């Protein structure tokens, strides 16, 4: 009798068979009828059911509102960081970007190798405003030939600005201007 | 799984009859009652349908929890029902799915509770009631039924935890091995093995009739 139940008999016991055996009677008792003491929590559960029945609508609305708010905050944050980067890069307060911006300057002298130092300096000296435009504009405008006039107009203001505001330029220049005279 | 398997013979329902021989379906009618309509009505806010569900599910749920965490079963059961009420609008499934879902919620609440309490559940087995339990002598009265049920649950709860849980979910909650496997995160074969070993151990505990 030590071998009982085997696997097949165990499955049948679990399904409710062999109810006339001692083990089957134990399992029958385990799934026996509900006693009144087992239903004492009905009042609290029904109260929870009533409370939950009213709750879902506002909670869903709150979730929707919070989602919209989260999206808005994310978008505004992205815009702020993006515009902040733009402002910082334009004003030169962003250390990583200010060093990158003078680099487009060599694009301008490329068509005319002779006045390298002359053109190079005004491009570097531009403290605010249009450093990306000056390197971007001339290469496309110069081959056409139509843009020569505007280029002259565009170049001419820069020295004026540089002469008017020499102080911010010196921060960048001292390291680079000594290099130019040596060659 | 449905009551029609009992009334129909093997000829008309060949597939179901092959899977579930009629002789094995000696389960109590309360276990087989299909309350899927009540589940759907309760989901739509029908309070009387919810009461019907509670009266059917709470006793087995309480017994399962008593096997899991002992005397704190009532507290965990009420926490379980609060969560069930809250999430019921998003539930979809039949009565078997509902019982499985309720058992899953109860299990999570019980594990949280045990973690909070930081003590292992210990369910003392009333040894003196084992003989009465196995003999089935005093089942005529409700009080005797309650005592016998409590003793049977305590006896099952004395098994190693995995065996006890497999037996309780299958016998008391009336779930099949596949569903229990999903609740416990195990394969159905592992659930069958755990329940089988639990029954073998129980068979050693209760006085054996000569067979």
UniProtKB/TrEMBL annotation, chain A:
Q: What ranges does the record give for the region Disordered, renumbered to this chain? A: 93-183
Where does the record place Pro residues bias?
104-114, 129-141
| Domain of life of the organism encoding this protein | Bacteria
Q: What is this protein called?
A: Uncharacterized protein
Q: What organism does this protein naturally occur in?
A: Asanoa siamensis
Q: What is the lineage of its organism?
A: Bacteria, Bacillati, Actinomycetota, Actinomycetes, Micromonosporales
């Amino acid at each position: 009798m030590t071998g009982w139940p085997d696997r097949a008999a165990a499955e049948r016991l679990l399904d409710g068979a062999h109810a006339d055996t001692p083990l089957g009677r134990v399992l029958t008792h385990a799934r026996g009828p509900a006693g009144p003491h087992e239903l004492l929590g009905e009042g609290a559960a029904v109260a929870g059911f009533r409370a939950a029945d009213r709750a879902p609508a506002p909670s869903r609305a709150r979730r929707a509102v919070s989602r919209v708010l989260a999206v808005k905050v994310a978008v505004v944050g992205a815009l702020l960081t993006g515009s902040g980067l733009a402002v910082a890069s334009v004003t030169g307060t962003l250390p990583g970007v200010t060093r990158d911006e003078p680099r487009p300057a060599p694009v301008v002298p490329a068509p005319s190798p002779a006045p390298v130092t002359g053109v190079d300096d005004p491009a570097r000296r531009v403290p605010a405003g249009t450093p990306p435009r000056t390197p971007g504009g001339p290469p496309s405008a110069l081959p056409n030939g139509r843009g020569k006039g505007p280029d002259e107009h565009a170049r001419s203001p820069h020295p004026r600005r540089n002469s008017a505001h020499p102080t911010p330029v010196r921060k960048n220049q001292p390291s680079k201007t000594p290099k130019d005279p040596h060659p | 799984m449905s009551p029609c398997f009992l009334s129909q013979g093997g000829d008309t329902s060949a597939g179901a009859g092959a899977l579930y021989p009629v002789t094995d379906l000696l389960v109590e009618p309360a276990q087989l009652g299909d309350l899927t309509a009540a589940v759907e009505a309760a989901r739509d806010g029908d309070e009387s349908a919810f009461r019907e569900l509670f009266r059917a599910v709470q006793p087995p749920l309480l017994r399962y929890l008593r096997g899991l965490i002992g005397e704190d079963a009532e507290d965990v059961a009420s926490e379980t029902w609060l969560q069930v009420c809250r999430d019921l609008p998003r539930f979809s499934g039949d009565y078997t799915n509902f019982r499985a879902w309720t058992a899953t919620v109860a299990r999570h609440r019980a594990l949280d509770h045990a973690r909070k309490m930081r003590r292992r559940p210990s369910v003392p087995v009333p040894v003196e009631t084992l003989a009465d339990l196995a003999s089935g002598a005093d089942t005529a009265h409700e009080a005797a039924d309650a005592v016998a049920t409590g003793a049977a649950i305590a006896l099952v709860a004395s098994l190693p935890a995995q065996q006890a849980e497999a037996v309780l979910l299958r016998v008391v909650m009336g779930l099949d091995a596949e569903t229990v496997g999903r609740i416990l995160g195990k394969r159905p074969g592992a659930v069958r093995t755990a329940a089988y070993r639990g029954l073998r151990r129980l068979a050693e505990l209760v006085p054996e009739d000569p067979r």
